[in-house]
Design goal:
This protein is mainly alpha-helical and 605 residues long. The chain is 64% helix and 3% strand.
């Protein structure tokens, strides 16, 4: 229909009307579920203790304000404004940025493949928690004397993982038990995603809220345990001298960056299903704030329990690591010593299951948006079928995590494709919004969506501070990868003679990754970052355009956009770039001839 001023007003298509969150609450819960994951429970508390206790909160909050929140805000605003997944949204800013969206797709795929295996491990512990007595509290299932020295560590490696002594050794082959848990985990994930954001929003209503009930139960129990005060004192006692160590600041930046899921394209996809007129500024602040507060609460809960463990066993809290070592060894040991241990074990692992599954289906839902809507990878097939195909494909790849060397291979996926590539993507996103799209255009877009301008501090961070911080972090990670060879902890079991002679008993040894494993890791990294270069800079971006990006900006129409499904492919692929010198006007109208072809409606950019 014709609107005032001669502009064409489009009616929402049937597909657009069907897609979308059931409510604002569902959107926020899904975003929180994606951000608040296992890392909040098993990584943040360890970093807080390792890097100066309460003093670590200083760099953590600084990195949250100048790196985390601005980039989360960018991703949400871009998704809501351009109304597409990670591929289409960035491509609408400039054709060369299609590679950024494709990088998000590849990285999210790697994350989906391995993250669900962690959920499978959690399902094992959740299942055994239903028994009358916890199997990892004793050694009735084995005659190995090594079990008596560290019951939970032995159970984790020998029973759950059936770990081999080397990444080159597959042991007895795939574990049928782990394969069953892996299948169950994928079934849960599929049920939360198969109908798109409708099923994701409904699932998030439970999987995001219930962990907070579990966390509250564990928190109340934890702070009332003997020795809890020791754990909390260890956690929060500030060591301000640690702030002089640059590694503390790098750890803070890394934790903020990865805990918010920046660079995965999930926030872009989720926000694309929100109404155009929505206060995305407030949404980003809410999600980022709740994520960080959850980390602190989880730290209090975990370290009160570790204080009880230290009080009961005389094992120093300083000997506790993070990740699987914290969750499946230290915490399980502490829980096994509580009264009503089976109940608290179930509560703890049910909390972890919900945290893990909400992050897993969030990433998968964010991945399906560009695959299904942007790239049209499945044509006109039903979304339920498409999600099923992707889930089965990822499940088949995930079988590599079930043999004896599966946990070591999982570390390859965790350490290579979802570290530096995410930084590369986010740096490209900051440059795209701050320089190519133009911070004034971004401000006008935010004003059009929310009725209020983009906060000044956000504009400064997006254009200058955030990319600078991320570049420093990327360089530091690159230097570390060059100077140090990646290692892994291999389970070799204990030496019974050490027990007999009262020597220190060790179960694992540190090994360097073999050449083939480092090569595989390098290939995964290249697979994640090459789209930026090959499909981006090499195909579309010229040196003249790079220079112009820093002197002027592309011309855009600031206003509500339509979905990319209504843009002919040839139009998107052959967009010409027009730059103009920056003026004081925030609203700039796109005069590119590519958008005025006959039969193509005007597209607000």
């Amino acid at each position: 229909m014709e609107a005032e001023g001669g502009k064409v007003e489009k009616k929402a298509t049937k597909k657009e009307a069907e897609e979308g969150w059931g409510s604002k609450t569902e959107f926020l819960l899904a975003c929180i579920g994606m951000a608040v994951g296992l890392g909040n429970v098993w990584r943040f508390p360890y970093l807080l203790h390792k890097n100066g206790g309460g003093a670590f909160l200083i760099p953590y909050v600084i990195m949250l304000l100048f790196e985390g929140l601005p980039m989360l805000y960018v991703e949400m605003a871009v998704g809501q404004y351009f109304r597409g997944g990670s591929v289409v949204s960035w491509q609408k800013i400039h054709p060369s940025l299609k590679g950024v969206g494709l990088c998000c797709v590849v990285i999210s795929s790697f994350l989906c493949i391995y993250y669900v295996m962690v959920i499978a491990w959690i399902l094992h512990y959740l299942w055994v928690s239903l028994r009358g007595s916890l199997p990892y509290a004793g050694c009735s299932y084995t005659n190995d004397v090594c079990c008596e020295e560290d019951k939970t560590l032995y159970y984790w490696y020998a029973v759950v993982l059936k770990a081999s002594p080397s990444i080159d050794d597959v042991g007895d082959g795939p574990s049928l038990e782990l394969l069953i848990y892996l299948i169950v985990a994928w079934i849960f994930t599929y049920l939360c995603v198969f109908q798109g954001v409708k099923s994701t929003g409904k699932a998030a209503s439970f999987t995001v809220t219930f962990p907070y009930i579990c966390l509250l139960v564990l928190l109340v129990r934890g702070v009332t345990l003997p020795g809890a005060g020791l754990g909390l004192k260890t956690l929060f006692t500030p060591q301000f001298e640690r702030l002089a160590d640059p590694r503390v600041w790098i750890d803070a930046a890394t934790q903020i960056f990865f805990s918010l899921g920046l660079g995965l394209g999930v926030s872009v996809a989720f926000a694309s299903f929100m109404p155009y007129k929505n206060n995305i500024t407030r949404d980003a602040m809410v999600v980022g704030g709740i994520n960080s507060m959850t980390s602190v609460l989880a730290g209090i809960c975990i370290y009160s329990i570790l204080g009880f463990r230290s009080h009961s066993t005389d094992v120093s809290i300083d000997d506790v690591g993070y990740g699987t070592g914290l969750t499946f060894v230290a915490i399980t040991e502490a829980v096994s010593r509580m009264s009503a241990s089976s109940f608290f074990s179930f509560v703890f692992f049910f909390m972890l299951f919900n945290l893990g599954i909400s992050s897993q289906f969030g990433v998968l839902a964010g991945l399906m948006t560009p695959l299904y809507n942007d790239l049209k990878l499945f044509g006109e097939a039903r979304k339920e079928l498409c999600v099923g195909v992707v889930a089965v494909f990822f499940l088949l790849i995930g079988i590599v995590f079930t043999p004896g060397n599966g946990e070591y291979i999982l570390q390859l996926f965790n350490n290579f494709p979802v570290t530096m590539p995410l930084l590369v993507v986010s740096i490209a996103e900051a440059i795209a919004v701050g320089w190519i799209f133009g911070i004034n255009n971004f401000d006008a877009a935010v004003r059009d969506m929310t009725g209020a301008p983009c906060p000044r501090y956000f504009k400064i961070c997006i254009k200058y501070v955030s990319p600078a911080l991320m570049i420093v972090l990327l360089v530091s990670l690159l230097v570390n990868s060059i100077l140090y060879t990646e290692t892994y902890g291999a389970f070799v079991n204990c030496n019974p003679n050490d027990i007999a002679t009262n020597k220190t008993v060790t179960y694992t040894v540190v090994r360097e990754l073999p050449v083939w494993a480092q090569t595989v890791g390098g290939i995964m990294v290249l697979a994640c970052v090459l789209p930026v270069v090959v499909l981006g800079v090499w195909k579309h971006l010229t040196w003249e355009e790079i220079v112009q990006a820093f002197h002027g900006r592309r011309q855009y129409t600031i206003g509500e956009t339509t979905r990319d499904s209504e843009i002919p492919k040839e139009t998107m692929e052959n967009m010409k770039v027009n730059y103009m010198v920056e003026t004081e006007k925030a609203e700039i109208y796109h005069n590119d001839a590519a958008y005025s072809n006959e039969g193509v409606d005007e597209i607000g950019m």
